[in-house]
Amino acid sequence: MKKGALIGCGFFARNHMHAWADVEGAAITALCDRDENRLKETADRFGVERTYTDAADLLKSEELDFVDIATTVQTHRPLVELAAGSRVHIICQKPFADAMEDGKAMIDAAASAGVTLMVHENFRWQSAIRAAKAELDKGSIGMPFWGRVSFRSAYDVYSGQPYLATDDRFIIQDLGIHILDIARFLFGDAHTISASTKRVNPAIRAEDVATMMLVHESGVTSVVDCSYASRLPRESFPESLLEVDGSEGTLRLMPGYRLVLHNASGTRELDVSPPLLSWAARPWHNIQESVYNIQRHFIDCLNASSAPETSGLDNLNTLELVEAAYLSAAENSRTIKLDTA
Ligand code: NAD
């Protein structure tokens, strides 16, 4: 049994806790949050007796195999370095870092300590996205040459996560990071990116719309587009939609988790809806299932001593896309060359 502690008992951590309860071979035995009310509320809800308001105290007092860091980005580097110093494995929420040098420093700290460092980059772990990838890998549409990964919504994300309305960066850093990571997952790393951003909602501080174009090393050109300002007749939050054109056919992941594949043999439509886990609630069930999938992957990797798919090192390439997208948007959509890890 791998014993873990959750650091950060905020808005999203409840999903982590439910998912940990379902992951075989893992148990959360201690909690930490510097906010005593949140700490107590989570401890009571999930029946965890050992609680700390200071992560250093937690790491000094508990015997742990891993920590699950579910705080916002500003605290990731100090907490990852602290955990690496105590030689425990680490799973850390996205955005892993808001500067490349912090990402690299965390990777170095984990490597020197000989511990696993995985980023909780969960969108690629959604079952609909995995089903689409399996079709591409099977060659169902031949060799992909063009793709679109799209997330457009007007869902009120600000009430659950008020920091999204006030941070200096919004949609690329919070949501685009996931959508860019899906593009990497499907089409591989990119040579170049260009981007344009816009703020439509006057009540928030940063951009709520972003459109990015990537040229991938595989030869695919993709468009990654995100919006929290799009009032659609049918709200599909939090679905990521896909369009991929290949040499032999096309793939579409449509609202309602409908995967449509077309090639010379005809058209197939598959229902790739995520399962509704016992603790999940629509429309979040898609994200909630991916939290379970990624946390299970983390434990599988610890048991097998293998590198996680979304390791810290892998995630540097997603972070680089985020940084390059902001740079491009600030410089009139200039094309930025990437230098992947
Ligand atoms: P939140 O502000 O609601 O919760 C963060 C908690 O961490 C707070 O309770 C805060 O007191 C605590 N905290 C901060 N620094 C701490 C420290 N040094 N020691 C102990 N506790 C500390 O934030 P949230 O909305 O739950 O988001 C947390 C992270 O999860 C963010 O990085 C966010 O981007 C990410 N997130 C991911 C997904 C996803 O699908 N992967 C979805 C939502 C949020």
From TrEMBL:
InterPro entries on file: Gfo/Idh/MocA-like_OxRdtase_N, Gfo/Idh/MocA_oxidoreduct, GFO_IDH_MocA-like_dom, NAD(P)-bd_dom_sf
GO MF entries: 1,5-anhydro-D-fructose reductase (1,5-anhydro-D-mannitol-forming) activity; nucleotide binding
EC number: 1.1.1.292
Keyword match Oxidoreductase: yes
Keywords linked to the UniProt accession: Oxidoreductase
Residue span(s) of domain Gfo/Idh/MocA-like oxidoreductase N-terminal: 5-119
Domain GFO/IDH/MocA-like oxidoreductase: 129-252
Keyword match Lipoprotein: no
Enzyme class: oxidoreductase
Name this polypeptide is given: 1,5-anhydro-D-fructose reductase
Species annotation: Roseibium album
